[in-house]
Amino acid sequence: MAHKKRYALVIDSKKCIDCKSCVVACRAENNVPLRYSRNWIDEEHRGEWPRLLAAYEPGQCQQCESPACVRVCPTGASYQRPDGIVAINETECVGCRYCIIACPYDARFFREDKGVVEKCDFCAKRVDRGEVPACVETCPSKVRVFGDFNDPNGPVRRLLESRRYYTKKPEAGTGPQIYYLL
Amino acid sequence: MRGFIQHLLIVVAAAAFIAAIPPVTPVSAASKGSESKGRYYFRSTCKSCHTKGAAGGEITPLNKTQAQWKSYFASSKHARGKEPLTTLMTEDQLRDVSAFLDAHAADSLQPETCGK
Amino acid sequence: MDRRRFLTWTAGGAVGATVAASISHFEPFLKKREAGATRVEVPTTCEMCVNKCSVIAVVENGVIHKLNPNPASPKSRGMLCARGNAGIQQVYEPARLKRPLIRAGERGEGKWRPATWDEAWDFTANKLLGVKDKYGPQGSLWSSTESFQETFFKNLGLSFGSPNIVRHPTLCLASVNLAYSATFGTVPAFDLANAKYVIMSGANRFESFITPDTMDLIESTTERKARLIYLDPRFTVTAAKADEWYPIKPGTDLAFVLAMLNVIIGESRHDKEFVNTYTVGFDKLIDHIKSFTPEWAEQETEIPAKHIVRIAREFSDAAPRAVYYAGRRSSWYREDFQTRRAQAILNAIVGSWDREGGMVPNGKIALGEYDFFPWDDPVAPRIDEIDKNFPMAAKGDGAYLKLRENVLAGAPYPVKAWMIHKQDPMNALPDQAKTIQMLQQMDFVGVIDVQMSDTAWYADVIFPESTYLERQDPVEAMSGIWPVVVYRQPVIKPLHDTKPTLEIVQGLAKRLNLSQYFDFTIEQWVNAQVKELPIEAPLEYLKKHGIYVPPDFPKYGTTLNSEHRFVTKSGKIEIFSDRLQEFGYDPLPLYHPPAQSPPGTLRLITGRKAYFTHANSTNNPWLNAFDPENRLWLNPATADSLGVADGQLVEAASTAGAVRLKVKVTQEIRPDCVFMLHGFGKRAKWQRLVAGVGACDAQLLETAWDKVSGNAALHETFVKVRKV
């Protein structure tokens, strides 16, 4: 019996080496001008010489289950696809930027040159062609695993069943669909 | 006196013997022939029979040590002594091929490089 | 204009408009925009670094939209790094070389006049012939960095009659290659995917470079609990990921290895059967390493003896799935050859050879060749007198720094013409003042490049090459644990009046009367290369797939039999090397401590970031964004003692020169070292993002080299830092 698809991302930050491949791949794939970024790497550096620690964590739109951005959008430009991907219809966007304020993850940005808001949409065009998002594909460490959360035999569920994980700002109540492995 | 002369002769002979041992210096094959031309002749002439599956069986420079190649060219016996090498190539060409094989022999110094 | 209509227009031309927003002067694309998008995928091979990953270019409406990884390649493993993705910018860069240029002012002044190809060729050929008349063909120098078309450039120099071909290895990895060649007769690959214990001295695989080793190592350490021990004066990304990181005192890695040998042999932990069957000279090693105790090594390296002992034991326990990783760039210290020799010996005695998880001799694929009768050998000896100075080194690569020294001395003879292909000696060589001298004393300097490098800035004639995405290249067979043949075909037609190196060379050859050596098209050359591949219609196959992956790899154990003869003097793996002894070098590594920093100075160490390829991609906007300006790394204690704060401007000075740049105060470097990224402070004004921005490390680095290989020693420079 066919199930409803629901795309999600699993991120293993331990593998992230901050090589920026995902940032450049996203920029190329989605024609994002240099001033903006749909994805980024958060860095943490701690300690004092020689007891040091550094960790890297990729970030992007969390493609929430109950996206705050969709809820607050006055025109319906921000919407959620049946497969879970949260997308923006640029022709409907009036650039009020209410969604930017509503997003708990700072995932959205305003395109001055176009007058609309933009964010990561899991490379919806690629996904619709049967490919994975550019950031997922390009990564040397294979930090990101993309797939259908609802597929019990798919890579996302298999990972989440065998590994401990956390999500970001669960208290915001939006149900983020990026799972960070511990 | 004879004992002294005998000693002297031994010393002289020993000295001559030691002088006759060539100093162990790097062999510069280039002074003896052109490696690049030798490679060309090897590929155009020798390789016609000496590739995998062909009549003479695959032969590469690594098949012999420098000393073995040297003695092979000195004896000049091709195809199990059927003919001298000069039936296949001129002396000059053979000198070039010999230089090429010497430079890439099983025990020659051929440090690997990057990206050819 | 009504916003909705504006947006509708831009939505339809979204690709064009957004690309245009980030790249100026992009009229040609906007004019060609069509109503319905056409989309093609073209497989090819990346050239943003030396890795040659397989790429599938997505071309929409005749514009390269995205470069995707080609999943078919076992080398690039379905990955494409930041540089690979940014290759698009190399093509559409407005300030790239678009037509031949001839210098119109002084060298380095930046005044150019556009020239036709005929003018550029005529001018160059006349100059070259003039130099040949006056100084002989050996008066010309031909320097290049590896590329698929490099062979045509080198052949032009050789057929011209010059012995002076020099390549990049003695600025990079000549010492490690020679050390492994001297030990095993070959430079093996490292099976990091299957290794259980990996020790790395530098070779910052998680930060400086993205290679299959990077991918294998991150996977084996995170998924398969492989242990990573990492030695580096800096806390790099690799240090952050390693199980153990030691801020080793710079230049003492050999002491660490010798102590490991001491423990392993002293405790009889070596692989006796392997040593007896496949090696010679072990008996001499036993006595040799007796004095190199862990306690002694602790004094040298600042790594506690108890850790050295434990690591040695763990390493030998994990063998043969244990490797001391050779790394790639080994241009560190004057003693680098012997350090790498010791590492090779260490790997050998624990039997990590030709087995899973160890060193694996490279699988190779035989390609055909376009045969032609070669030119006469050059008559004159090489200018760097490599036979005399570095008799064991790879002759065809030359010894770059010694070569420069001789050119500047005008001895043994003058060199007055310099042709350069895909290389930026102004940045690639240390001691830039000397490189400028070398350039200025030339009667002629000609450069083949895709962008206006600092060296091109000082040239007399610049030949603009088509970028890798606009070119048909020879195929390349890449050896390794998974050997492949990769294909590079044009993804788009050249945007500008550029040519591939072969055609540039052919234009010169015609005027130099050397056409007979270049009397073929690239298609004929490629056809000859591929016809021996064991596949149906190999050319069509490669055009379609971009890569040929032979079956039956990896192969382990092919050399582990009594018939196999290692390409060494003895036919075995040489722990003790007679040959080294004959040439007057230490046949077993002896320890010579590195020079120490004079009081009031700090050691300048170098390293890379994986989004910059040496100096040539710092001006790529998509990559420059990550590090727009290089800074001088100072440990907080050092910064305090100098009275400088983060972001403050300082002057760093060595005997080679002085530069000014801002300080980055960071915990992640030893207090006795400083570090700066390569590829900044450029002179070429066309590289707007990095011209005059930050500082050029080549101006600071002093000339030093490894005595066996002639490889540059880039960590032997001490700088005085002061606030300004």
How would you portray this structure in words?
The complex is a heterotrimer of chains A (182), B (116) and C (724). In chain A, the strands form four sheets. Chain A has a four-stranded mixed β-sheet. Chain A is of the alpha+beta class and 182 residues long. Chain A has a single domain, classed as Alpha-Beta Plaits, CATH 3.30.70.20. In chain A, 21% of the residues lie in helices and 25% in strands. A two-stranded antiparallel ribbon of chain B has the order 1-2. In chain B, a hairpin with a 4-residue loop joins β1 and β2. Chain C is an alpha/beta fold and 724 residues long. Chain C has a seven-stranded mixed β-sheet, with helices on one face. In chain C, strands 23-25-24-27-22-26 form a six-stranded mixed β-sheet. Chain C has a four-stranded parallel β-sheet with strand order 11-10-9-13. The longest helix of chain C has 19 residues, at 117-135. Chain C is globular. Chain C starts with a helix and ends with a strand.
List the helices and strands and how they pair.
The complex is a heterotrimer of chains A (182), B (116) and C (724).
Chain A: E1 7-11, H1 21-30, E2 40-48, E3 51-59, H2 68-72, E4 78-80, E5 86-88, H3 98-102, E6 109-111, E7 116-118, H4 124-128, H5 134-138, E8 144-148, H6 155-162, E9 165-166, E10 178-181
Parallel strand pairs in A: 1-10
Antiparallel strand pairs in A: 1-8, 2-3, 4-5, 6-7, 9-10
Chain B: H1 2-20, H2 35-44, H3 66-75, E1 77-78, E2 83-84, H4 91-103
Antiparallel strand pairs in B: 1-2
Helix pairs in contact in B: 2-4, 3-4
Chain C: H1 3-12, H2 14-22, H3 27-32, E1 39-45, E2 54-60, E3 63-69, H4 82-85, H5 87-92, E4 101-103, E5 112-114, H6 117-135, E6 140-144, H7 150-160, E7 165-166, H8 174-184, E8 189-190, E9 197-201, H9 212-223, E10 227-231, H10 237-241, E11 244-246, H11 253-266, H12 272-278, E12 279-280, H13 282-288, H14 294-301, H15 305-318, E13 322-325, H16 336-349, E14 359-360, H17 386-389, H18 400-409, E15 417-421, H19 425-428, H20 432-440, E16 444-449, H21 454-457, E17 461-464, E18 476-478, E19 484-486, H22 501-511, H23 522-530, H24 538-545, E20 547-548, E21 573-574, H25 578-582, E22 602-605, H26 621-624, E23 632-634, H27 636-642, E24 649-653, E25 658-665, E26 673-675, E27 717-723
Parallel strand pairs in C: 6-7, 6-15, 9-10, 9-13, 10-11, 12-21, 15-16, 16-17, 22-26, 23-25
Antiparallel strand pairs in C: 1-2, 2-3, 4-5, 4-17, 8-14, 18-19, 19-20, 22-27, 24-25, 24-27
Helix pairs in contact in C: 1-2, 6-22, 7-22, 8-16, 11-14, 11-15, 11-16, 14-15, 18-20
